[in-house]
Amino acid sequence: MLAEAGYATRRDSKTLHLIDEANGVEFFYLRPRDIATYVAHGALDVGLTGRDLLRDVRLPDAREIETLGFARSTFRFAAPAGRFSSIEQLDGRRIATSYSGLVESFLTSRGISVEVVPLNGAVESAVQLGVADAIADVVETGTTLRQAGLEIFGPVMLESEAVLIQGPSEHVGVDRLLRRLRGVLVARRHVMLDYDLPAEKVHEATAVAQGMQSPTVSPLQRTGWVAVRVMVPRRDANRIMDDLYAIGARALIVTAIDNARL
Fold it and tell me: Which domains are present in the chain?
């Protein structure tokens, strides 16, 4: 994503420090769990990490300023099948997790007191090994939990994804970084659609695909026809093409967008 935004990136995964002289940016490659701490203390102006890790460190001087649309995960509670049906039943129990701060904050805000058993890595075996009554962990399909004899219960604790975070001080370069990253996100989520259309159908076609402001419409050499260009969501491109074809659009072509500024 940084490369698509025009920044220098490391060629060797062992590189921990990189200076991008052309853009006036200095990059540090750190453990994701440590990034929020460095940002909160002002050692770094911004950082890329997970919302879960940001919430877990509980440092108010580091705040989320943009979602980045990848590394999504869901945090849930799990226990042996049939043992618990609500999180209120966890009061006074032992909860094993790799995210102690996140779990404590969530349960404390609901008046539930537990003993948190901090673990590094997989926590699915904690109940079977007798160190906890339930666990709190990342859940995707739930297959791993079921294999360990556990079932999900209670509400979703957190929906997480990769985020851009900022520290206590403002920096002029952050706005430029944000614009560039947002341009990458727009380009990834949209495509450019070109098509030919009878001129009298423009109003009808605009109702199908309006674009960011409005489509670009240019006259064709063929009398009564126009060429239309419009940006559309990538996920909806085929449906939009079908709808436009049905009202008379022809020569529909979709092209990728490398980058954008809106």
Answer: 17-70+162-186 (3.40.190.10), 73-160 (3.40.190.10), 190-256 (3.30.70.120)
Chain segment 136-176, per-residue pLDDT in tens:
998 877 788 888 889 999 999 999 999 999 998 888 789 99
Compute the distance between CA of residue 117 and CA of residue 186 in angstroms, rounded to an integer: 42
Residue 189 and residue 233 in contact, taking contact as beta carbons nearer than 8 Å:
yes
Other CB atoms within 10 A of residue 131 CB = 13
* Cβ atoms of 257 and 183 closer than 8 Å: no
Q: What is the pLDDT of residues 69-105, one digit of tens each?
A: 999 999 999 999 999 999 999 999 999 999 999 999 9
Q: Please list the alpha-helical segments (H only) found in 2-46.
A: 32-40
* Among 161, 97, 149, 162, residue whose Cα is nearest residue 123: 97
CB 197 within 8 A of CB 97: no
- Global pTM value: 0.85
